[in-house]
Amino acid sequence: MIEGERGRIDYDELGDGPTVVLVPGSCSTGAAWRSVMSQWDNGFRCVTTSLLGYGGTDERRAAFDTDISHEADILEAVIRRASRPVHLVGHSFGGLVALAVALRNQVPLLSLTIIEAPAAELLRYMGEHQHYRAFRAMTYAYFTAFHAGESAAIETMIDFYGGAGAFAALPQRVRSYAVATTAVNILDWASAYGFRLTPASLARIAVPTLVMRGGASHPAVQRANELLAQCMTNASLVTIAGAAHFMITTHAEEVAWAIAHHMARTEAMRRPAAASAAMSPMHNRFAEGFLASEPSGGTLDPLSSRIDLPRLAGPDFQELLLRARTARAAALGAALFRAGWFLAAVVSRPARSLIGRLAAWRRRERAAAELYAVDERTLADLGLRRADIPFILALGRRERWTAPSERGCGAGAATYGGVLRPPRSEVG
Predict the structure, then answer these.
(1) If you count Cβ atoms within 10 Å of the first and of the last residue's Cβ in the chain, which end, N or C, has fewer?
(2) For the whole model, what pTM was predicted?
(3) Cβ–Cβ < 8 Å for 282, 44
């Protein structure tokens, strides 16, 4: 446990070897990673935590302040406690928080693994409106049910991710915890919808990244994570066949292998000479022999029938071409947006000009009425005659007429268009 001024943060670690920080999603704690960790047989130093409002981590957000930076703050505190560069792995909303940490670039990361992050705003930015509406329709129904007092409103969200009946199939203690933390999860969605992701921002993430999705997940979730991989310059996409959103439990073996493969590959690229020695404590079937097989193009895929690894062996030129086209489309969209603003300004200018002329006409009419209402004596004190009034009004259309000032302008003086003129009686 980390004790801080703003509250407690869950912190636990187990095992020895390269450090991996495992971030769970909503409605769960670090215990969600037990099935994956058991596959590694203590071959990694596994650091686990819980997001805001879950487990022992105190909530810091409020309904009016749900910025994802609050989540990033606690995750960065966990990484700093680990006291060394880490491999960062995030599932679901935890994956979105891991992305925020990578974008902030304030802590040292060796690699990044994102497992089905709810990157709905990236869908909206990329014009994937059908998939974006799927997210919005789900959360609208979910929030409406919660505010109507339905205790199991969160079932809508869980079934969206895991398929019909996913909530009912969960163990009772898991369902109860999800129901108890529904209000926290609604804050999570506010943070997710407020997290603006663009191809330009994602392209700044240089750390080697693995994006994982389930082959049986909701199409909107699959597409969102596919776009994440496309927009990052150093990312690979892995599809776990037959898996849905909760794959870290249902397909722990495949997930564990894919993460271990990614971390081993990153370690090999980072320290080629020392990689074999660094990995020797990892006596498990996922990482053993990887370094020997990698140079020959092998992928060390003992689960090849269930894992699709399209980009780990070498560059996918079709994917690179698609990524270039996506970047070009984003640049064109930005240019069209700026052109639209310019055209809107040009089109609306006549309307503003017309309103300005109408306002000026009304000011002249009021000025004329006030001048004609002044008696002859007062006009004489100003050095004016009633016959001068039409001249003053006509001049006001081109120049600003200012009444005499008590500062610097002598009594009986007047200014036309900022030029001091003597009273009419002195002109002759």
Answers:
(1) C
(2) 0.66
(3) yes
pLDDT digits (tens, 9 = 90+) for 56-74: 999 999 888 999 999 999 9
**Among candidate residues 75, 86, 91, the one with its CA nearest the CA of residue 32:** 91
Instruction: Specify the CATH number for the domain of residue 149.
Output: 3.40.50.1820
Those residues whose C-beta lies under 8 Å from the C-beta of residue 257, and which sit 6 or more positions away, are 39, 286, 302, 303, 307
324 inside domain: no
What percentage of the chain has pLDDT greater than the value 70? 74
- Which residues make Cβ contacts (< 8 Å) with residue 361, sequence separation at least 6? none
Say what the pLDDT of residue 395 is: 66
Q: Give, for 125, the enclosing helix (H) or strand (E).
A: helix 120-125
Q: Tell how strand 209-214 and strand 86-91 pair up.
A: unpaired
Domain assignment of residue 221, yes or no: yes
What is the number of domains present in the chain? 1
The pLDDT-based confidence of 386 (bands split at 50, 70, 90) is confident
Q: Would you list the DSSP string of 267-336?
A: HHHH-TTTHHHHHTT--STTTTTHHHHGGGT----TTTTTEE-TTSSS--HHHHHHHHHHHHHHHHHHHH
**Domain hosting residue 295, numbered range:** 2-314
Q: Which residues pair with 86 in a beta bridge?
A: 109
Residue 275 pLDDT exceeds 90: no
pLDDT score recorded for residue 92: 96
Residue 72 or 306, more confident: 72
Q: What is the rounded CA–CA span in Å between residue 39 and residue 35?
A: 7
Supply 206's token pair.
């240089």
Does residue 32 belong to any structural domain of this protein?
Answer: yes
Q: Which residues contact 54 (CB under 8 A, 6 or more apart)?
A: 10, 24, 26, 27, 28, 29, 181, 184
Instruction: Let me know: does 207 contact 110? Beta carbons within 8 Å.
Output: yes
Residue 369 lies in a domain: no
| C-alpha distance from residue 113 to each of 13, 55, 265, 285 (Å) | 18, 22, 13, 20
Encoded amino acid at 87, one letter: H
Confirm if 135 and 156 have CB atoms less than 8 A apart.
no
